[in-house]
Design goal:
The protein is α+β, with helices and mostly antiparallel strands and about 210 residues long. The protein has one domain: Roll (3-methyladenine DNA Glycosylase, Chain A), CATH 3.10.300.10. Helix content is about 15%, strand content about 30%. Strands 1, 2, 3, 4, 5, 6, 7, 8 and 9 form a nine-stranded antiparallel beta sheet that branches. The longest helix is centred in the first third of the chain and has 7 residues. It is globular. The C terminus is likely disordered. The chain binds a DNA duplex (13 and 13 nucleotides) through strand 4, strand 5 and helix 5.
DNA sequence: AGCACGATTAACT
DNA sequence: GTTAATCGTGCTC
């Protein structure tokens, strides 16, 4: 594609906080039966290392966390609450467990299919949650370990051809969602990145989005 | 082998 | 704002 390019492994092979922030405005792409489904990433969270008590890797190397210990640029997809799949991207060097959770995207391509999958829901709620976007893009555990940086990948992230994001966003950081039982400082550390359209600046400002 | 728990969502009141 | 749905994971026995 002329106006875009796939993010390289080097992009993910960097400090997780940097990756989490710079993923905002990039385009998540899923090729399904030859058709493109995509959305602009607008919300992420960082999970970094065994010390991070909010990170699954706090349990060390297990069958579940194995992918996070692997090379960067792979998908870490896991199941939670008995019914939801969540999509993460592995970051940092091989051997160091870290990942970025994709919490929300703004749908770009694949409206018909997503409308079908999220039937009954208004458009604004199609992909505004980590499990919702997995449902919308039909991403489940079979994608765990998938290499986003391989040639002709069916799941990957795009930037513009010059490497910049598609959307110019103002970035707000807040504590990560749903870590109520996690000890401090991990519970409150501001490792959640929320992108808001620059055009919305000066209008409504939400200091801390509801958790 | 058994069990408590959860990086959530939708459908309630 | 509250709660049920639902099952893989990791920890304990």
């Amino acid at each position: 594609m002329n106006h875009s390019r796939s993010l390289s492994r080097a992009f993910f092979d960097r400090p997780t906080l940097l990756v989490a922030e710079q993923l905002l405005g990039m385009r998540l792409v899923r090729i399904e039966n030859g058709q493109r489904l995509s959305g602009f990433i607008i919300e992420t969270e960082a999970y970094i290392g065994e010390e991070d008590q909010g990170c699954h890797a706090r349990a060390g190397l297990t069958p579940r966390t194995k992918v996070m210990y692997g090379p960067p640029g792979h998908a870490y997809v896991y199941f939670t609450y008995g019914m939801h799949w969540l999509l993460n991207f592995v970051t940092e060097r091989e051997g160091f467990p870290a990942a970025v959770l994709i919490r929300a995207v703004e749908l770009d391509e694949g409206e018909e299919i997503v409308a079908l999958r999220r039937n009954g829901q208004p458009r604004a709620q199609w992909t505004n949650g980590p499990a919702k976007l997995c449902q919308a893009f039909n991403i489940d555990g079979t994608w765990n370990g998938y290499d986003l940086c391989q040639p002709n990948a069916l799941l990957y992230v795009e930037s513009q051809s010059d490497g910049s994001p598609f959307l110019a966003l103002s970035v707000t950081t807040t504590p990560r969602v749903g870590l109520y039982s996690v000890q401090e400082p991990w519970r409150s550390i501001a490792w959640r990145f929320v992108g808001s359209p620059l055009s919305a600046l000066g209008k409504k400002h939400r200091a801390v989005p509801e958790t």
